[in-house]
Amino acid sequence: MNKKLIERKDYLDKLLSYKDKEIIKVVTGLRRSGKSTLLELFRNRLLRTHIKPEQTQFYNFELPENYLNKTWEILYFEIKSKLQANIPNYIFLDEIQNIADFEKLVDGLYANENVDVYITGLNANLLSSELATLLSGRYIEISILPFSFAEYLEVRGIDTGNKYLNYETLFYDYVNETSLPKGVELREEGFDKIYEYLEALYATIIEKDITQRHKINDKRAFGNVAKFVAANIGSPISPSSISKVLKADNQTVHNTTVEKYIEYLVASFVFYCVNRFDIRGKKQLATLEKYYLVDLGLLNVLVGRDRTADRGHILENAVYLELLRRGYKIWTGTLRNGEIDFTVKNRNGEIEYYQVSWEISSVETAEREFTPLEMVKDNYPKFLLTTESFPQSRAGIIHKNVFEWLLEK
Q1: pLDDT tens sequence for the chain (409 residues)
Q2: How far apart (Å, rounded) are the C-alpha atoms in residues 7 and 42?
Q3: Which end of the chain is more exposed for a tag (fewer CB within 10 A), N or C?
Q4: Do 383 and 346 meet the contact criterion of CB atoms below 8 Å apart?
Q5: How far apart are the first and last CA of the chain?
């Protein structure tokens, strides 16, 4: 497959909206989710305008030659010596967490006139905590996700204007293989190559980003916590319930340790946590969160099971990630006698409700999915997303084909 750079338009537009603003742009996300490529795309976009190459500096700190034997001070003066006087300068610092005291480097560059700083990093807590201490209120975090279903089809060269496309088959490819850019490039080499890539990537995340950094000795217990969460995506779970399951398997791990392990996995962008929201009481609840996986292909590594067995939760996971891409704040909606998969606030701060089901072919399933939405007595939009080709809306609830919804602009 020839490498095709997908524009990642939403992320590029967001970066462009902050261009030349006095705020540091911090791009975070899972390893290999496209952070470095995004900076390259953005730099190329600048060069196609009136920006000269010498006005940009790009440092990839995964390359040892860019950081070995270099303190933050050395790097600061190296970068400063190349700044162009009296015109804008754009500094790109990729994988900044490899530099000790990187926040001092960023702060120093930010203090210079005509300097616009863009950085990428792996770990949400690493960036949030250390940057927040020094740069309080002076940075914006843009979290990047792997390819959406629309981007995945684009990189495969599939024309979504073709009304005879079998979206269900393509969706199974999407969730069975991977949505990570490099993994999609490998698809013509066969599933084994994708699996090996995901296995190596996951091992690197666990080893470098989590167990080494947080000095985790019981790697077996940690691995089993990750597998449990992956096997229960979209289901409410608690650290104490996981602790009990591990105890039954002769592993004694306290629930506070389980909670920490999950926090590390979320901070490294392997999982995303969704809190529950009491719709009637209008308040967030503090227990029984749900978790969703950043890339469904990782289920091959973590759980290794056939997707058709749990296709409802797989679809729910894909919808969650799409809502996140669209910039929504997301909760699970709880009612006295039911639950709504996602209660969201859109970019305008307006509430919307989403229920997700693979299909509602039986009367019982239709009732189960429509009823919780019907129980909410407000006038906010309510959606039911399924794979049916001929949706049947009712009682003001908009029933949509989920594949068409995933491809909406």
Answers
A1: 445 567 898 999 999 999 999 999 999 999 889 999 999 999 999 999 989 999 999 999 999 999 898 999 999 999 999 999 999 999 999 998 889 888 899 999 999 999 999 999 876 655 666 666 777 778 888 999 999 999 999 999 999 888 889 999 999 999 999 999 999 999 999 999 999 999 999 999 998 889 988 899 999 999 999 999 999 999 999 999 999 999 888 888 999 999 999 999 999 999 999 998 777 667 776 678 999 999 999 999 999 866 666 899 999 999 999 999 999 999 998 887 788 999 999 989 999 999 999 999 999 999 999 999 999 988 999 999 999 999 999 999 999 999 999 999 7
A2: 9
A3: C
A4: no
A5: 26
**Closest residue by Cα to residue 234 from 296, 305, 279, 304:** 296
Structure tokens at 373: 């939405």
Tokens of 315: 């679809």
**Cα 41 from chain centre:** 19
Please report the sign of the dihedral spanned by the C-alpha atoms of residue 190, residue 313, residue 35, residue 227.
negative
Write out the chain in H/E/C secondary structure. CCCCCCCCHHHHHHHHHHCCCCCEEEEECCCCCCHHHHHHHHHHHHHCCCCCHHHEEEEECCCHHHCCCCCHHHHHHHHHHCCCCCCCEEEEEECHHHCCCHHHHHHHHHCCCCEEEEEEECCHHHHHHHHHHHHCCCEEEEECCCCCHHHHHHHCCCCCCCCCCCHHHHHHHHHHCCCCHHHHHHHHHCHHHHHHHHHHHHHHHHHHHHHCCCCCCCHHHHHHHHHHHHHCCCCCECHHHHHHHHHHCCCCCCHHHHHHHHHHHHHCCCEEEEEEEECCCCEEEEEEEEEEECCHHHHHHHCCCCHHHHHHHHHHHHHHHHHHHCCCEEEEEEECCEEEEEEEECCCCCEEEEEECCCCCCHHHHHHHHHHHHHCCCCCCEEEEECCCCCCCECCEEEEEHHHHHCCC
C-alpha distances (whole Å) from 158 to each of 151, 175, 321, 333 are 10, 16, 21, 36
Do residues 325 and 407 touch, judged by C-beta distance below 8 A?
no
Rounded to two decimals, what is the model's pTM?
Answer: 0.93
- Which token pair is 75? 């790097």
